[in-house]
From TrEMBL:
Natural source organism: Persicimonas caeni
Highest taxon of the lineage: Bacteria
A Pfam cross-reference name: DUF2505
Official protein name in the record: SRPBCC family protein
Alphabetized Gene3D superfamilies for the sequence: 3.30.530.20
InterPro entries given in the database record: DUF2505, START-like_dom_sf
Length: 177
């Protein structure tokens, strides 16, 4: 299991950033260079402080090398994010499901939104676990090492992307305030 740990700041007040991430994330795709679309599939206001939102994220396929495009199908570039927002705690518990490898990849965590006056500190703590035994073609004897290598690679790859979402948020808010 690999740890996901990111601390970053967004230069807007916590209430605005939290509400925008919870309610308007679909509108941010235009501000995220690697994302083709973000689509809300379900939303449930559980009580006055708790909202559950299910979104499907789809990455752009432009970065895939031409040689790999015949192996990497469009459905492999999307994932489902289930987020439970707790306004009374300024947190969001999330888990992610990769559609084509839902049995092999588990990712979950919590985002915390800390008030810093005119900005908000966003702390993302989570875990990513890859069960390589569930990936077709991976020999059982190598599954542990392959899983660990994939976990480390994915965490290293997504960490800057998590900060890019915050930069996208800042651009979105600058244009839509």
């Amino acid at each position: 299991m690999a740890k996901i740990s990111v601390t970053d700041k967004v230069t807007y007040p916590r209430e605005l950033v939290y509400r925008t991430f919870r309610d308007d994330l679909d509108d941010l795709d235009a501000y995220l260079p690697d994302i083709e679309s973000i689509t809300t599939k379900d939303r449930e206001d559980i009580d006055d402080n708790t909202t559950k939102v299910v979104r499907v994220w789809k990455a752009k396929d432009e970065e895939i090398p031409k040689l790999a495009r015949k192996f990497i199908k469009p459905e492999m570039l999307q994932w489902t994010d289930t987020a439970v927002w707790h306004k009374d705690e300024w947190t969001c518990d999330w888990d992610m499901e990769v559609g084509f490898l839902s049995d092999a990849i588990t990712a979950k965590g919590t985002n915390r939104y800390i008030d810093k006056g005119d900005e908000v500190e966003i702390i993302i703590d989570g875990t990513l676990e890859v069960d390589a035994r569930q990936i077709p073609g991976v020999p059982g004897m190598l599954a542990g090492r392959v899983g660990k290598a994939v976990e480390d690679f994915v965490v290293k790859m997504i960490t800057p992307n998590l900060k890019d979402v915050n930069r996208g948020m800042e651009k979105y808010l600058a244009e839509n305030e």
